[in-house]
Amino acid sequence: MQEQEIIISRHLEESLAKATGNCPHDKLFVLTDRTTQEKCWPLVAEFPCMADATHIVIGPTDEHKNLETLSAVWTELGRQGATRHSLLVNLGGGMVTDLGGFAAATFKRGIRYINIPTTLLSMVDAAVGGKTGINFNGLKNEIGAFCPAAAVLINTEFLRTLDRENICSGYAEMLKHGLISTEKHWAELVGFDLETIDYHRLQDMVGQSVAVKENIVAKDPREQGIRKALNLGHTAGHAIESLALQEGRTVLHGYAVAWGLVCELYLSCVREGFPKDKMRQTVNFIKENYGTFAFDCKAYETLYQFMTHDKKNTAGHVNFTLLCDVGDILIDQTAGKEEIFNMLDFYRETMGC
Ligand code: GLY
Q1: Domain CATH code at residue 332
Q2: Out of 28, 127, 217, 288, which could bridge 122 as a Cys pair, Cβ 3.0 to 4.6 Å?
Q3: Protein residue closest via CA to atom 2 of ligand 1
């Protein structure tokens, strides 16, 4: 898979001019959703390198990350004269970069694209690493392709357009990157004040966080091995996210990941000897900043069923990424029903539900 250039950009105009200049094109397209069109496009609208861009605007949020919207983007690219030598700039959160990336990967067998992620979640996760796709048949990211952007421009000025919940949501993936990297990075993350955000410090931490993902993806772009480290917290997290959706109490993805980390740090602790003090410190940080998603023991079977249907599994086993310590990663760990129910007991006792 080709390399993607990740640019931690302190000067967006310069970086974007350089990135578009590095991708010779006959026509330039910009994909936004209605929210990023209103809130983020004004930050780039005056740049000379964007002067001739043709706009495609789609509906916001995950409910639009579907075949219909993808088809509308293909149609618009075709109608506006895009060729195989055109360039697409995706300006938005994970929904825009995932769907736009997939539209680019497939239009005329592939055109080049640049991601400008505008949410913390997309900066540290979705926009980086070449996973593109849409939801299909009720399943998240069911159809897609590995197709890296020509460049990903990360500029934390966009973070100032986000509310606290969206900062916390992205920060959960940063916490995960801390847990799978170094003690120093993890300690800085659990010591950060999410109530009164120091944006300069956050910008540096975002740079470190993206580097963690970038290094892992470079070793294993197609998730055959170590890229599965990035799934820490996601087996339990996706199950909680699905339960929340089923019960009509939808939660942001990162919140579910944070609660999933609580569950999977417990498994890491009882099975692999992950240090209890580090588990407590991380769990307390999550409890303070993310609150609790409450469920009772009647939900265990449903959560377990969601875990067994996770696409990360092989042949009926529930698959986890676990830790022996911060940065000491074990992929492809399976756990039985009883262990999983104990894990859910721990979650409820610790999080007070
Ligand atoms: N979001 C996990 C990955 O990109 O592999």
Answers
A1: 1.20.1090.10
A2: 127
A3: 230
Compute the distance between CA of residue 149 and CA of residue 81 in angstroms, rounded to an integer. 21
| Structural domain harbouring 326 | 164-351
The Å distance, Cα 62 to ligand 1 centre, comes to 17
Name the pairing type of β-strands 112-117 and 131-136: unpaired
Of all residues in the chain, the percent with pLDDT exceeding 70 is: 99
253 tagged catalytic: yes
**Contact at 8 Å (CB) between 174 and 189?**
yes
Which of helix, strand or coil describes residue 88? Answer: strand
Instruction: Note whether 11 and 27 are same-domain residues.
Output: yes
Residue pointed to by tokens 């736009």: 100
The domain boundary, picked from 136, 161, 186, lies at 161
Query: In which residue are the tokens 């069911």 written?
Result: 142
Give the pair of three-digit tokens for residue 204: 């540096």
Domain termination residue (choose one: 110, 126, 161): 161
Q: Are residues 52 and 124 in the same domain?
A: yes
Among 223, 224, 310, residue to substitute to test ligand 1 (most atoms within 8 Å of Cβ): 223
And the tokens for 129?
């690493």
Q: Which of 166, 238, 241, 278 is labelled catalytic?
A: 238
Task: Convert the pLDDT of each residue in 301-333 to its tens digit.
Answer: 999 999 998 777 776 689 999 999 999 999 999
Closest atom of ligand 1 to 223 CA is: 5
The reply to whether 10 and 75 lie within a common domain is yes
